[in-house]
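Cross-posted from the bioinformatics board.
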Amino acid sequence: MRARTAPRSARHTSPRGGPALAGLAVLGVLATSLTGCGGEENEDTTLTVFAAASLQDTFTEIADEFEAEHADVDVRLNFDGSSGLAEQIQGGAPADVFASADTQTMDTLVADDLVESPEPFATNTLEIAVPPDNPAGIATFADLAGPDVRLVICAPEVPCGHATAQVASDAGVTLAPVSEEQSVTDVLGKVTTGEADAGLVYVTDVTAAGEDVQGIPFEESKDVVNTYPIAPVTDSEHGDLAAEFVTMVRSDAGRQVLTEAGFGTP
Amino acid sequence: MTGLDLVARIPERDVDLTLGVPAGRTLALLGPNGAGKSTALAVAAGLLRSPACRVGVGGRRLDDVPTHHRGVAMLSQDPLLFPHLSVLDNVAFAPRAQGVRRSAARAAAWRWLDEVGVSGLAQRRPGALSGGQSQRVAIARALAAEPEVLLLDEPMAALDVSVTPALRQLLRRVLAERTVLLVTHDALDAVLLADRVAVIEHGRVVEEGPTQQVLERPRSRFAARIAGLNLITGRWHGGALEGHGLRVQGVTDGLALAEGSPAVAVFAPSAVSVFGNDPGGSPRNAWPVVVTDLEPREDRVRVRADTRLGEESLAADVTPAAVADLGLEPGVRVRFAVKATEVTVHPAGPDPEPPASR
Amino acid sequence: MSISLPRWLLLPAGLAAAYLLLPLVAMVLRVDWPGFLGLVTSPSARDALWLSLRTGAVSTLVCVLLGVPLATVLARTRFPGQGLLRSLVLLPLVIPPVVGGIALLYTFGRRGLLGGTLEALGVEVAFSTVAVVMAQVFVAMPFLVVSTEGALRTAGERYEVVAATLGASPSTVFRRVTLPTVLPGLLSGTVLAFARSLGEFGATITFAGSLQGTTATLPIQIYLERVDDPDAAVALSLVLVLVAVLVIGLTWQNPVARRRRAPA
């Protein structure tokens, strides 16, 4: 019985693998339509903005204002690490605007012709974050190298880690962190839970964290300024709207929102 | 000296049994499924505890003694040999568990394997044994524990009929002089292995007495159904059993019987034919008897009769028509005949009756 | 002998297999083969692999030492609240590991439930290799408990009862009868626990942090490299997959081999 059916079925499916692949594609379409990620059904125009995670609060506010000014436009925001977003755009994700937390990431997209003429719109610098009671008594950048300080920083592989390494080398301080995290959020988490005595994050992160952490500015941070560029995506179907959004971010109103969150002006 | 004293009183299961086994004797528990036989064993082994239960072995109270300190080994129909141990290590398990050194435990295991006739299988894994071989090893393993009391739970129920006679003889040999509580369905097990029989129905002992008496003249319904067997005890002489003035031919299940050795012949009443006078063709097993009573049961009539010497009572099942044809009634002289192929002859102990005093 | 299956079953079955295998194929295709050796033998990669193997081994040992007794208690006793306990013990199987990490943080962290006690004892868990092991044990233990408890229930108590009537004390029964009879289930549970420990990421990153050679295990290193050096990430992923395949291969062989050995 078995010996007879097996080869026959093998002839049906396996030699080319075509039907199986087609089936997988069907599966993908099915998943998309079921989860509602596919096409938009309403008549509003949707503008999709990919923005670095540190822009979550500010861009949400700016998008609200943009929607208020454009009654028929729906702004959809996608926040993630800049490099992750860049990967998604390289993979064909339907973005109209991309705002990155560093110029390197943006440059890779420029090199691939995926975005058009990026413009800087904000800057950010590092700041020391400590738990509200500052258990290790941190006051200066050099204090971070103290022997009993449990310091958490970004891993050198990620942008905030680049900046940290640069600041430390410029200041001639050797940091001995207990952990090198994947993102600023992870660093901040270790500080807010009190696991770490200090962390190096961006000024805006300290502002956003509110009372959970105390920020300690330090002179050496001025030398390493992180610039945030923004650009419309080349393949955008709503190029005009995308350009308008970029303009709005760089307008006085936009600047004001960013400044309140701790960002600097480029 | 007492062997095993047991009060198994489990109200939740509606079981209330009081049983006693004298030291060195075997008590068979007969009864239908669910009657409470296995419950009695579980209580004796300490696997089932209840405040109202009492267990004593050799005068020692075991109510609060955990199973492994009771000296009560159990053998069930499933040999349950530890699959990860060789046959030898299975048998050496009990001595090892009791703190005997490995070499001494293995030496003991060899002896017991020899005793049950499977020392050639010592290095095998249990998975490579037949059912009969496994049960022999299980017997050796139980004996190697040197238990004070052996609990047997239908030890032959799962075996092929071709191996049961030999295993039954093995049990007869190794159980002699041991204190044993034997649960069985098979009247023959009781006949050959037990000194006394207790019949259990619905959690109560409904009948208890010497094996032969209970099986020949059962008073309880269950015993009557499975028993009511004709048992003739005697000695093996010249290829037949002789006893009580009768000579009985039968089959011996391939077991050798020594000349002059004690034996018991067993046959069912349904195998007995009743004749008014000498039957033609003269079957070898034909004995003149006097009818003592008639007992109708379902579509048959059980005819009880005494042999001429009045020493042995036999039973035959006949149709009501035959009763009329032969004019059977108490006092009538007839002949009971049974084919030799319907009779099994088994080796028996030297003294089938329990001693009058102990 | 075998029953014949409805033929239509083969299409979804094939789809399922393809869906699970295709991403692996895609990853293999993406590997930068000329640079592979260099990528997987870089100091950070070697540190990560070695740390993963070490912590995985220790976690697995802890899982066995604590999980087998737990499985035995769950399988062999009855007490009020047992069903609830069993469900809770299995919880790490279904909650996101990150949640597990947060829970561990609130238990053993500096300001956690036991943090003060631990600190008074001079034990600092956070950011140490011990924390990595703790995170792994938390997520891997249920695998061991489930498979061992299942094996115990399947095996039943009959052999243990026999052993007790033969005079074996409870400890002897556990050591010489219970453990050997559930050994196959225990082994596959152990291998699963090891595999789960190797792959553990969420609870580790939340609870233990990430530092080369101390807490940066292979999955964490992969996640880090993904941003900076995708080639290295893919190469390390392949290493992890190979280790996992090896581990699963060992477990999968087991039941098949056992079935073949079993007498018909």
